[in-house]
Specification:
It contains 31 helices and 14 strands. The protein is of the alpha/beta class. The protein has a five-stranded mixed β-sheet, sandwiched between helices. Strands 7-6-8-9 form a four-stranded parallel β-sheet, with helices on one face. A hairpin with a 5-residue loop joins β13 and β14. The protein is globular.
């Protein structure tokens, strides 16, 4: 019922010269009393806005003395005809929140026929099917929503995200009215900030908004009595650092909103934290998925071959891709959507690189059983392009803050471009919600941003840029007096750095100082000291044809070899066994070859490898039969990579297992390695 119907209502009231009742109006115009009340509430908002007296409703009777003023408001009140898509989104929203839908009430509220409602419901059902949800007919109730609570919330979060990114004022107001304005954000943001500090991460703006919306949904549903009763990956999630930190922050939520969440609610919140984009380059909760490291390194090599430019030794690229890809796989597998499209920009600017990235990602997709979207592939292009820029070697600097809502990858490419063209000091790369705090703490001259920032948000000058720097962006930057980079390095500064480190050459110190001086123009192709496979694997760390009753005993025996050399503590063996119980299948990286390991928790003293071959194959919890156990420990999660890759390649060679079975003693195994890796 829109303004035209309201005019009819008040024409009827004026004509009969009396205060009508809600019931009488509903009956006269064949609409529900609920719809009448809803429209009168909206009308009262307009009256108050124009400083007119509100319509009072007392015991169902309308009381007013300002008919002419009401009529004036109604005639000036532009009728808003919402689109078909808006109506469908509105029906989906109300269905997910109310868990039921009444076709007659929808018809009245949206001022459309029941036939039109039925047409919309067909599309609504298609949307719900994507989340394994159905609308079942209930006697005298209409249609009732059926499905898992976890899926209902996922669908609701999706529709909230779609509405927030759209341009519909009607839908945005509807979302505020039905859910967002009902729960204040103060307690939620305190909880998120506290968890970030404990976990030691900074999540992107987009992920921050997703988690805020999900927590609002959780609070809303719990207060209505809808709770999550189970969750997949329960064992894995409950053992993560993130879950433990989130549980520590739980009193903030529960006391602020006077609600009590179950364990499953906090596990689901953990799910969203794990699936968020992060600004922390070294942060990764997927340290256990070592095969991704192998595939990514091969992917970089393949990309290098196709562009005919060697970026395979770029450490920042490897870590950046791992940091991006691991959470992406987690999100895809768990249907967590973080939508921020840069596909169009990438395709326009780097279509050739996009095609290459689309090709080199196929092995990873096949191995992990996932399909990367065009947006996700676009983010990979950002990492590769930044590495290509780094591979081209090039008085007081302006201090700038870079604000980007899409996470570390987009920010990294933009930062690389800015440094390439301008002599600036990028103090920090942050999401928008941290800007005020960082500006207050740091001495900043300028704020560069890829997202909209309102005037007055900070006292510092703000320049809005595209995710990929163009000529217009450069003009904006130069208009603030930022000088172009001379592409030259001061000889005096370079000599001073070398002299400082030459008395007693300290390579680490020299490398650090040169990186500081040359910033983005120095390609760091030094991963670690030039250790060989034989520095990490000796004959006293090899057991051949051992009798073991099961895989646990095999890990204990091979682990004891590293304990003897003081490479690890005993707890590392226990943690490796625990990891196999949870992720055993992911660690079988060659036929009958498993690479057990654990996340470093202070129980690794040095990087090392140990090998055990069993007399007979044994079965892992995941069902795979294995006869070769290659246990490794990594001091810094990087030193092991070269040796690890070589052993993975060796284990996948034709005839490897047959060769192992012929070996009688550990020295023979080392000889086999020397034949394979003579250098």
């Amino acid at each position: 019922m829109w303004s035209s119907k309201l005019i009819e209502v008040f024409d009827y009231v004026i004509e009969n010269n009396k205060n009508a009742t809600i019931k009488e109006i509903a009956s006269k115009f064949n609409i529900s009393q609920r719809s009448v009340r809803y429209e009168l509430e909206k009308l009262n908002e307009k009256l108050v806005m124009n400083e007119y007296q509100e319509i009072e409703i007392e015991k169902g009777i309308l009381k007013f003395e300002n008919l002419n003023e009401i009529r004036e408001i109604l005639e000036s009140y532009d009728q808003y005809n919402i689109s078909s898509d808006e109506r469908e989104s509105c029906i989906i929203l109300k269905t997910l929140l109310d868990r039921e839908i009444n076709q007659r009430e929808i018809s009245e509220e949206l001022d459309i026929s029941k036939t039109t409602v039925k047409g919309h419901l067909k599309e609504v059902k298609k949307f719900l099917e994507k989340y394994n949800l159905t609308l079942d007919i209930q006697y005298r109730k209409g249609l009732e929503l059926k499905g898992k609570e976890e899926n209902i919330r996922g669908a609701l979060l999706k529709i909230l995200n779609v509405i927030s990114r759209g341009n519909s004022v009607y839908l945005k107001n509807k979302v505020k009215e039905l859910i967002l304005d009902r729960i204040d954000e103060v307690g939620i943001k305190r909880f998120i900030n506290y968890c970030q500090k404990l976990i030691e991460i900074i999540i992107s703006d987009e992920a921050h908004d997703i988690i805020v919306n999900y927590l609002k949904i959780s609070l809303y549903m719990n207060k209505k009595g809808y709770t999550i009763e189970s969750i997949k990956n329960e064992k894995f999630l409950s053992e993560t650092k993130e879950y433990k930190c989130i549980k520590k922050g739980s009193p903030i939520l529960e006391e602020w909103y006077e609600v009590e969440f179950s364990k499953f609610e906090y596990l689901k919140i953990t799910d969203y934290f794990l699936g968020s984009n992060t600004y922390n380059l070294n942060y990764s909760y997927y340290d256990n998925w070592v095969e991704i490291e192998v595939i990514v390194k091969n992917m970089i090599q393949e990309f290098s071959d196709k562009i005919e430019e060697d970026i395979s030794q770029d450490k920042v690229l490897l870590e950046g891709l791992l940091n991006h890809i691991k959470p992406t796989i987690y999100r895809i597998k768990n249907h967590i959507e973080l939508e921020n499209s840069i596909y169009k920009e990438i395709l326009e600017s780097y279509s050739h690189l996009f095609e290459i990235a689309e090709t080199v990602i196929k092995n990873l997709e096949k191995s992990m059983g996932v399909k990367f979207t065009e947006d996700e592939i676009s983010f990979l292009v950002i990492h590769f392009k930044a590495a290509m820029d780094r591979n081209v070697v090039r008085s007081e600097k302006a201090k700038v803050i870079l604000v980007c809502g899409s996470g570390y990858g987009t920010s990294k490419l933009l930062a690389q471009q800015i440094k390439q063209y301008y002599d600036v000091d990028i103090v920090d790369i942050i999401p928008k919600y941290m800007l005020e705090k960082v500006v207050a703490k740091e001495c900043v001259d300028l704020v560069l941003t890829t997202i909209d920032i309102e005037k007055g948000f900070t006292s510092k000058p703000i320049i809005k840029l595209n995710s990929i720097l163009n000529d217009e962006d450069k003009k904006k930057i130069e208009s603030y007096g930022i000088l172009k980079n001379s592409k030259k390095i001061s000889m005096k500064s370079l000599i001073e750095v070398i002299r400082k480190n030459s008395k007693e050459l300290n390579e680490k110190s020299l490398k650090r100082d040169l990186q500081s001086l040359l910033e983005g123009f120095l390609v760091d192709d030094i991963f670690h000291d030039n250790n060989t496979i034989f520095d990490y694997l000796r004959s006293d760390r090899v057991l051949i044809n051992e009798k073991v009753k099961d895989w646990r005993e095999a890990i204990e025996k091979v682990g004891n070899l590293l304990i003897k050399s003081k490479s690890i503590e005993e707890s590392y063996i226990k943690n490796s066994i625990k990891t196999i119980e949870e992720f055993g299948g992911y660690m079988v990286l060659g036929p009958q070859v498993v690479f057990p390991h654990a996340r470093t928790k202070g129980d690794v003293n040095e990087t090392g490898f140990a090998i055990l071959t069993s007399e007979e194959p044994v079965s892992l919890p995941s069902g795979e039969k294995v006869s070769v156990f290659i246990l490794f420990s990594s001091k810094d999660n990087k030193e092991h990579l070269d040796t690890f890759m070589k052993l993975v390649d060796l284990s996948n060679k034709d005839g490897f297992i047959e060769s192992i079975k012929k070996i009688k003693k550990s020295d023979d195994f080392i000889k086999l390695l020397k034949r394979e890796f003579p250098d």
